[in-house]
Specification:
Strand order of the largest sheet: 6-5-7-8
Helix content: 40-55%
Low-confidence stretches: none
Radius of gyration: 22 Å
Number of strands: 8
Number of helices: 21
Length: 456
């Protein structure tokens, strides 16, 4: 039977690929406010701490072992380790490491973790070329802007279909950032974005496995290679993003082009970045926050008969694992998150260790969590009631969790988080030096001195 090859499409889309290429190539260095520049430093610092902190995780060990089979040239550092590999695989490995703990930044409008793909690619290239800290920050701000604006264009339909939006937009951000760092003109930047458009990586089916952090790593490597190929004359469609068979219209039924063009160069998406106080999926954070508050009221685990949890349907879709078998699965279990908040008053990486996730008292407490869907509750909120054995009910409603834009982590909070991640890898003194280098990145003449501090 003959088939109809006609698919509904927008044949009159604006030239998005070209618009973004001209923006990345032509925007002034530090062409934004002090507040935006400070947020760029915070984003870089948070990303680096996460990458260093997970440097010895088995996922990173396995990925590094695979890369070493290729006998890579020692061009760039694997953060938190002594090894060096080629720049493409440094981008891959540091992208993996930065997302392994699920502790990295989040652009809440799209649930993109933007620094993983962009910073991993840009820093590897910058180390190899000896770029300045200012050049790195420029590339980071513009790369994140490209990734998140494209995310805004296709979210939520793209994400709801099952794509992991961090990886499927991250290759654009990495390509844009690296094109900027290489000084490519608009024509070649457009080719870099076009090459990147054919390399979206990431399916939500992989959440709770080592392959989830592969997504930002794979996107970082893809974007870096796209920029290098474009630099040397490799070509792509000049309409690879917006064409009827281009990236946006293939991966989503929504393509709001104005999300790219509105206030371009005036509003920067990095301004809407947030940072995690809890090392797990962002939609669990309100529930953990509520349980931490219950603990602070003096509620002890032995007093609890059950926890009544009401959340948006997305929360259970993403994090409804009732019986996580290990730490990676625990990061996608709102049940474990509630138990951690009540038992420990926190949910850092230690609370998602394999032996904690399977500890009998933790298992027993999470089995007392009864979660139900209430779509009148925002996905960034949670309604939690502790029903106690004496019949009392203690209620907490979290509209915005700690770490959100409404209740942001302070610079001091980020520094404490960084120390918690890095001290065990680099030592407290070296970690303090690395923190100082992060805060002064914008004035660094060569990022290699900062990178050297990130090696044991």
């Amino acid at each position: 039977m003959a088939r109809n090859t006609q698919v509904a499409a927008d044949h009159n889309a604006p030239p998005i690929t070209r618009i973004l290429a001209e923006y990345v190539a032509g925007h002034a260095s530090r062409g934004w406010s002090d507040a935006v520049d400070h947020e760029a430093h915070r984003t870089f610092l948070n990303w680096l701490g996460c990458a260093v902190g997970a440097a010895r995780h088995e996922a990173v060990e396995a990925a590094l072992a695979a890369v070493q089979v290729l006998q890579p040239a020692p061009q760039a550092t694997v953060l938190g380790r002594t090894e060096k590999v080629d720049i493409a695989n440094a981008a891959l490995l540091n992208g993996i490491s930065s997302h392994t703990f699920d502790f990295d930044d989040t652009h809440l409008k799209t649930i993109i973790h933007p620094a993983g793909p962009v910073a991993s690619a840009v820093l590897a290239l910058a180390e190899h070329t000896g770029a300045s800290g200012r050049a790195v920050l420029d590339a980071l701000v513009l790369g994140i802007d490209v990734a998140c604006r494209l995310g805004n264009t296709v979210y939520p339909e793209h994400y709801d279909r099952g794509w992991h939006i961090t990886g499927t937009t991250g290759m654009f951000g990495a390509a844009a950032g690296c094109a900027r760092l290489l000084g490519l003109d608009a024509d070649r930047t457009a080719m870099a974005l076009g090459i990147a458009a054919s390399q979206p990586v990431g399916l939500r089916e992989q959440f709770g496995t080592m392959t989830k952090p592969f997504h930002p790593g794979g996107a970082a490597r893809a974007g870096l290679m796209a920029a290098l190929m474009a630099r040397h004359g490799y070509t792509a469609s000049p309409k690879a993003i917006e064409a009827p068979r281009g990236w946006a219209q293939v991966v989503s039924t929504r393509y709001a082009w104005n999300e790219v063009t509105d206030e371009l160069g005036e509003r920067f998406e990095i301004s809407f970045n947030s940072y995690k106080p809890f090392a797990c999926g962002i939609v669990i954070h309100p529930s953990i926050d509520a349980c931490v508050q219950l603990r602070e009221r003096g509620i002890a685990p032995e007093q609890i008969e059950r926890i009544e949890l009401k959340v948006h349907s997305l929360v259970l879709e993403l994090t409804g694992k009732k019986e996580p078998a290990d730490g990676l699965q625990g990061k996608f279990s709102v049940y474990h998150g509630c138990a951690a908040g009540l038992l420990f008053g926190r949910a850092a990486e230690e609370e998602f260790a394999d032996d904690i996730v399977t500890r009998p008292d933790v298992v027993a407490l999470r089995r007392k969590v009864v979660a139900t869907v209430d779509d009148s509750i925002d996905e960034a909120s949670a309604d939690v009631t502790a029903v106690l054995t004496d019949g009392r009910r203690e209620h907490v409603f979290i509209e915005h969790a700690i770490g959100s834009l409404q209740r942001p982590m302070s610079d001091a909070d980020l520094e404490r988080k960084f120390h918690g991640l890095s001290d065990g890898i680099l030592g407290a003194e070296r970690t303090s030096e690395l923190l100082a280098a992060c805060w002064s990145l914008g004035t660094a003449t060569d990022v290699r001195s900062l990178v050297a501090l990130a090696r044991p």
